[in-house]
Amino acid sequence: MAEQPALRTRPAWVDDDLFPFRSRFVEVDGHTVHYVDEGTGPVLLLLHGNPTWSFLWRDVITALRADFRCIALDYPGFGLSSPAPGYRFLPEEHAGVVAGFADALGLDGVTLVGQDWGGPIGLAVARRRPEVFERLVLANTWAWPVNGDLYFEFFSRIGGSSPLRFLARRLNLVVNAFVPTGHRRRKVTAAEMAHYRQAQATPARRQAAAVLPSRITASRSFLAEVESGLAGLSHLPLLIVWGGADRVFRPQERERLEASFPDHTTVIVEGAGLYVESDAPEEFAAAVRGWLTS
After folding, report:
1. What is the DSSP letter of 82?
2. 34 in Cβ contact with 68 (< 8 Å)
3. Least buried of 90, 106, 176, 252, by fewest C-beta within 10 Å?
4. What domains, with CATH codes, occur in the chain?
5. Cis, peptide link before residue 213, omega less than 30° from 0
């Protein structure tokens, strides 16, 4: 598949009213990584899942930037970030990029905020850079291998099958299926959907999203690394903000996270879906602010 030229300027299709932040770019291990860096104060590093990008966090950033420094990046192949040649869009590779990103920006005293794939990716980074992270916020995610769990095995095998990967690349299936159904409180607007679709406007740009469903089981070694690192992170305070109407992650995933972190606080956002930070941003931001300032 042809490599895409690196973006280093913000494309015209990004609506300045809908995404009212300065777009920044930094080179990390040959990748051009897009990010936004808004506000001052304690650092929140916001990590997205599939098939989203930093756009997912826009309302949370707007709500919190008066009191916090909100940094949200796009993994290579997502949003406005461009991968180096040969990048395979694997979660273990994304974790390496995020670690390099934290190094490049000289981050410290960070609160990790991770949702969906941003959970295991961020936790892997926190384990590799323990001096950087002080607190954790996790939303609708997991942190261990799920091989043998028939629920996730089915999802990964179907989503990662050749026909579904073909449809993901040709018809933008992951965006068109997941983004609307991951919002349960509200309907995603046409303008919002356009920003998710434009970020994956070509088959080559859709490869990153097409890869991840199969990695739920195929990245077993990486997820085992994440799980083994939980003991070393279990002393960190954890806030769980959980969309209670999520159709992907079940209560047992939340309960397992709670059991892994003795110092945890859980906020269940009733009626919200997988993308709780976009589905109910006011409640998400209020939960984060209240927890960090209490």
Report:
1. B
2. no
3. 106
4. 24-145+222-293 (3.40.50.1820)
5. no
Q: Round to whole Å and give the CA distance between 62 and 103.
A: 25
Angle at 53 between CA 203 and CA 92, to 5 degrees: 80
- Paired tokens of 84: 């180096």
CA angle 180, 136, 131 (to 5 degrees): 135
Q: At what angle do helices 207-218 and 173-181 cross, to 10 degrees?
A: 70
Write out the chain's pLDDT in tens, 294 residues. Answer: 444 556 678 999 999 999 999 999 999 999 999 999 999 999 999 999 999 999 999 999 999 999 999 999 999 999 999 999 999 999 999 999 999 999 999 999 999 999 999 999 999 999 999 999 999 999 999 999 999 999 999 878 876 677 767 676 877 889 999 999 999 999 999 999 999 999 999 999 999 999 999 999 999 999 999 999 999 999 999 999 999 999 999 999 999 999 999 999 999 999 999 999 999 999 999 999 999 998
What CA dihedral angle connects 208, 81, 111 and 187, to 10 degrees? -70
- Evaluate if pTM is beyond 0.90: yes
SS3 100: helix
String of DSSP letters for 230-245 = HHHHTTS-EEEEEETT
Task: Give dist(CA 151, CA 195) in Å, integer.
Answer: 31
CA distance 138 to 161: 28
- With 0-12 / 13-18 / 19 or more C-beta atoms within 10 angstroms meaning exposed / middle / buried, residue 84 is middle
| Count of residues making up the chain | 294
What contacts 170, CB < 8 A, 6 or more positions away?
Answer: 203
Both tokens assigned to 51:
């098939």
Q: What angle is formed at CA 111 by the lines to CA 71 and CA 57, rounded to 5 degrees?
A: 40
Residue 51, Cβ density class (10 Å: 0-12 exposed, 13-18 middle, ≥19 buried) = buried
